[in-house]
TrEMBL record:
It comes from Pontibacillus chungwhensis. Substrate binds at R290, R327, Y331, E359, Y387. GO terms for molecular function: diaminopimelate decarboxylase activity. Its EC number is 4.1.1.20. The gene is lysA. Pathway: Amino-acid biosynthesis; L-lysine biosynthesis via DAP pathway; L-lysine from DL-2,6-diaminopimelate: step 1/1. It holds the Pfam family Orn_Arg_deC_N. This is Diaminopimelate decarboxylase. PANTHER family: DIAMINOPIMELATE DECARBOXYLASE, GROUP IV DECARBOXYLASE. The modification N6-(pyridoxal phosphate)lysine is found at K63.
Length: 428
């Protein structure tokens, strides 16, 4: 979890900027990212792979959080970029991100999205299904354009995580199944298509993985499949993409490994299983998203009303909620928080933190110890940098918050706060 410190004015600091200054300048709710932490995470992934002596690509999974400035940061840190929609692709291109380092994912890419990516000459398509396998090739043939692809496969590994973020099991909407023969059929089709350059295979087994056993199991299965395809069809398949899913700390109960430990385990697993099958080492691709940005993000809210139900519960309400962080309602996600403007005071009051939306399920934190709260206090909720703003909505016609990057005592807006005028701009 990101380090926040009390300064001489007794408020928390993020990226060297006091939260009272941030709130005064930008208002609330406010998403604040420690930019230095994101950059350190990016460098940690690359450094760990450089130590492994494997060829590699680290692609930031932009679905976790994307704006033009985040795409620029990823480029500056020599990352590739994983996009899953035309909108994410458009954002990356508008930010000047090199198209050759963009990988296009998704289980239902439209013809228009595929054409857009072909026009941009992106680096790789991760093909997810038989319709896309044909549609993408037809479009590429009309352009006489060679296209690099990976095939997404489901290895049948069930990750120990929330069922909504498990993706590698056999019963999944993603990818070609290995055990039912669909992956091999897709390999045969792709290998015959003249416009395709078949780089290899892709797999993603799930998110919030606190161990490495699932990765090792998946890599063992994938390596066996690569070996079979090499022996049967003479295919090299030089790229192995093992996805992302590296765990982060949301509460003290979460005990993720370090970035280096995840990468080292993956690298050693690849070497072990490829050596067993006497295969040359592949270029290993990974796709960290949550682990790149989650702990770097903090959401600042202003405390509003308080409801005390004697002998039952005390609710405090903040000026945001499920519109800027739907994860507690969707995944039963848990967070830690504290009063940013009074970090040194003893926590003596058990409260539940409610959002302002007209939904009983709009609860950010159910049980939290805080100092007795007052109207106008600033609540800092930690580790909100992934899938907060990305999944934000305008439910109840609530504008989405501003997003700020803070680093070395300076801050800047990277996404402006929406206004009421923005809410009706498309209305007729």
């Amino acid at each position: 979890m990101q380090t926040v410190e009390a300064n001489v004015r007794h408020s928390l600091e993020i990226g060297g900027v006091s939260t009272d200054k941030l709130v005064e300048e930008y208002g609330t709710p406010l998403m604040v990212y420690d930019e230095g932490m994101i950059r350190r995470n990016a460098r940690a992934f690359r450094s760990a792979f450089e130590s492994s002596e494997l060829d590699f690509q680290v692609a930031y999974a932009s679905k976790a959080f994307l704006c033009k400035e985040m795409a620029r940061l990823a480029n500056e840190e020599a990352l590739s970029l994983d996009v899953v929609s035309g909108g994410e692709l458009y954002t990356a291109l508008e930010a000047g991100f090199p198209a050759a380092r963009i990988h296009f994912h998704g289980n239902n890419k439209s013809e228009e999205e595929l054409a857009m990516a072909l026009d941009a000459e992106i680096g790789c398509f991760v093909v997810d299904n038989f319709l896309e396998l044909e549609m993408l090739h037809d479009l590429a043939s009309k352009r006489n354009q060679e296209v690099s692809i990976l095939l997404r496969v489901t290895p049948g590994v069930e990750a120990h995580t929330h069922e909504y973020i498990m993706t590698g099991q056999e019963d999944s909407k993603f990818g070609f199944g290995l055990s039912n023969g669909q992956a091999e059929t897709a390999i045969q089709i792709a290998a015959r298509k003249p416009q395709y350059k078949l780089l290899g295979i892709h797999s993603h087994i799930g998110s919030q993985m606190f161990g490495t056993e699932g990765f090792d199991q998946a890599i063992q299965i994938l390596t066996g499949f690569v070996y079979q395809m090499n022996k049967k069809y003479g295919l090299a398949l030089p790229v192995l993409n093992v996805g992302g899913g590296f765990g982060v700390r949301y509460t003290e109960d979460d005990q993720p490994l370090t970035i280096s430990e995840y990468v080292t385990a993956i690298s050693e697993s690849v070497k072990k299983h490829y050596t067993t099958h006497e295969l040359p080492y592949p270029e290993v691709w990974i796709e960290p998203g949550r682990s790149m940005v989650a702990e770097a993000g903090t959401t600042l809210y202003k405390v509003g009303s308080k409801k005390i139900i004697p002998d039952l519960r005390t609710y405090i309400t903040v000026d945001g909620g499920m519109t800027d962080n739907i994860r507690p309602a969707l995944y039963q996600a848990r967070y830690q928080a504290m009063l940013a403007n009074r970090p040194d005071e003893d926590s003596t009051e058990l409260v539940s933190v409610a959002g302002k939306c007209c939904e009983s399920g709009d609860m950010l934190i159910w049980d939290l110890m805080l100092p007795p709260t007052n109207y106008g206090d600033i609540l800092a909720v930690f580790s909100t940098g992934a899938y907060g703003y990305s999944m934000a909505s305008n439910y109840n016609r609530i504008p989405r918050p501003a997003v700020v990057f803070a680093d070395k005592g300076e801050s800047r807006v990277v996404i402006e706060r929406e206004t009421y005028e923005d809410l009706v701009r498309k209305d007729q």
